[in-house]
């Protein structure tokens, strides 16, 4: 399970259900690297490091704004989504190039430009399909879940003398 800590930033009521908005901060691996001061990638990562992600969850527990929660997604689901995003479009590119190389001359389109255009269109359509599929699985396997709700932190700790 890959876990991340988020903070509840708003609470809404929809159809007698509590909907919470959880904010997480996207982290870069450059933050823990010792060579980040001498690295161009580290300098670029600092520019884009302040990104935040807002996620919406239905939650039955009573929570307050500012409370921290632990979010998690199983590794196998993350690997499936990554394979869909990277491998399917690549497979579509190669397959459309092979099929187009056989079929386009039969139609009378001999130039390589038509083959490139066919491959680009099929790859683009595959990207769109994967994007739609993953966004329609919004609360499904590819979406993180709230694993744990941490208690609200108390600033003033009272000490009892014995």
From TrEMBL:
Thylakoid as UniProt keyword: no
Q: Does the keyword Plastid apply?
A: no
Lineage, broadest ranks: Bacteria, Pseudomonadati, Pseudomonadota, Gammaproteobacteria, Alteromonadales
What keywords does the record list, in alphabetical order?
A: Membrane, Transmembrane, Transmembrane helix
Any stretches that span the bilayer, and where are they?
78-100, 106-127
InterPro entries for the chain: RseC (IPR026268), SigmaE_reg_RseC_MucC (IPR007359)
Q: What is this protein called?
A: Sigma-E factor negative regulatory protein RseC
């Amino acid at each position: 399970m890959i876990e991340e800590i988020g903070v509840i930033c708003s609470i809404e009521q929809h159809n007698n259900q509590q909907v919470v908005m959880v904010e997480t901060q996207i982290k870069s691996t450059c933050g823990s690297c010792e060579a980040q001061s001498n690295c161009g990638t580290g300098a670029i990562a600092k520019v884009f490091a302040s990104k935040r992600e807002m996620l919406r969850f239905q939650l039955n527990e009573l929570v307050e704004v500012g409370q921290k929660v632990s979010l998690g997604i199983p590794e196998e689901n993350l690997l499936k989504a990554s394979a869909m995003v990277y491998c399917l479009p690549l497979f579509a590119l190669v397959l459309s190039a092979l099929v187009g190389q056989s079929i386009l001359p039969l139609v009378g389109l001999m130039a390589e430009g038509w083959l490139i255009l066919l491959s680009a269109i099929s790859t683009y359509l595959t990207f769109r399909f994967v994007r739609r599929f993953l966004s329609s699985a919004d609360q499904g396997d590819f979406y993180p879940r709230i694993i744990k709700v941490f208690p609200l932190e108390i600033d003033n700790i009272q000490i009892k003398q014995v």
